[in-house]
Amino acid sequence: MRVSLLAVLMLALPGGAQPPGTPAAPPGQTAAGPVGPTVASVVDLTAVDTPNDAGGSIDLAWGLSPDGVVPDSVEILRTAGDSTVSVAFVPAASGSYTDEGLRDGVSYAYSLVSWFSGSAVGAGPGATAAPSAQWINTGRIGMLVILVLLSSVILVYIERAKRGHKLYIREIAGLSAVDDAVGRATEMGRPVLYIPGIMDMDDIQTIASMVILGRVASKVAEYGANLLVPNTRSVVMSVAQEVVKESYLAAGRPDAFRKENINYLTDDQFGYAAGVDGIMVRQRPAAIFLLGTFYAESLILAETGKSVGAIQIAGTAMVSQLPFFIAACDYTLIGEELFAASAYLSREPKLLGSLKGQDSAKFVIMLLIVLGVAASTLGEAWHPAVKMADFLRFLTHVE
Amino acid sequence: MRLVLPLAVTFICGMIMVLQFFIPHRPFSSMGERLTDWYMIVASAAIFLGAINLIQVHTARIQHRLRNWQYSPVVIIGFFAMILAGLFWGVEDGRPFDYMFQTMIVPMGATMFSLLAFFVASAAFRAFRSSNWRATLLLLSAFVVMLGRVPIGDVLWRLVPGAAAGAHPNLVNEIAEWLMQVPNMAGQRAVMIGAGLGVVATSLRMIFGIERSYLGGAE
Fold it and tell me: Exposed, middle or buried by CB within 10 Å (0-12, 13-18, 19+), for A357?
């Protein structure tokens, strides 16, 4: 009640109170200025529950009348029951504000007060809304539909593979060369260097890299070569140690596992690049795997590897780093091939099935792209095509 | 149990992260954030594992006089110098830790980064050798893009009679932009769509326990 009285007083006494950051009106001036420029009024205030949220917030939006100068700021007043509070002062031209920290189901009434030259110059219209939480994010329904479809296709192919259907998988040169690379290192008596990128275990590419590391470690254990895995994250190091240890165990060579070869260097990006370059130059590995997430250090690592004469197999989904790997490495797994590597190397039917499902999903997406382009283009001349384009846009739009 | 427990944890956490993306209502919205916080706590605690591993590896190298062991004392001394400087004098501006960071770590990082210029030159030389028609196409595209990104490209173009007064006085720059925005962008998006599908397939394999090699290939 005290706050609402204060607001009324502010309106009744021009120049008597100031919002934070608003300069005081010079002496002798009225709320509207010396002669008083006409100040634009706040109009069309709307208050709606914030869509697709966990509740507790209301979106406010307003406009300004076209006549007069824009107010310096707008004070937002919120009334719940018989208590009114001043929520915030915002620039009038911003036109929107999200009021947070509210209770779901309670009805809140909002009103706006315009401020100009340090004085309240007028009250705007009011609006009421009650916040609530939503059970489904409507802005992501299209993505949910696509995800369900993709997952279904992949699961169907996995099921078909489990039943013994023959699945054709195209040859991926970089993955076919893994055996050769490890064999070469064994024959030359030099180590195999595996670099799992510079990101942590919450990165999907690092997870994919750990999965491939398991396959590579099995080959290394089988061939009797030496495997080095320098890491830039402690969690990745711990996971890599476990993965390699299990692979050596599965290959029947637990005695050959060297925990100290899977070590931590530093979290610093270029410190790590310097450390790995040092390992390459001193130990001269015969095979180098660069699989995971890489940034600017990618070319530094790949070029150093090239200079020591190692056969290099790289793979990443980082589009900006792919050209560097293609230029400096013998084989490069591009984007999806990195994620296909585990299935390809293991040749397990269930994993191959998921790969086949992934390819089919890719075909569906290509079809959607062609349909979307055709519908948008045709829509210029034939209106029904616009509906198709809008539907596809809804499917692919993500908030 | 050794297999079931990690698979169950993966399934539950994976499903929570998927659901919280589509369901904004509590408790799903807060569960995703909670899991991310937990990961941050685990990752922060795990830094000690890395530090212990670093000390163990380099101490063993010094003890056994392994090959290139002379570098290990430098690592250990540097490691403890930074830790002790931070512990005793803090990490604020002007303190020994900040001094070492600004005058040693930062320049060394910048040095490594600057090596990139030389590596780009050597890699570009190899990539642009016109050994076949695709490499020649790449060479020509790269030449036009490089020329279009610097003012001299259009200056040279305007030397052509009538070009300066024509409809396209910045033609080289326009062609370079087109190459970057149309064929290059189309290729990048194709890679990104493929990678996105790969992410979905990999996530499904792990959530449903089809991919188990990260557990050591346990069946």
Answer: buried
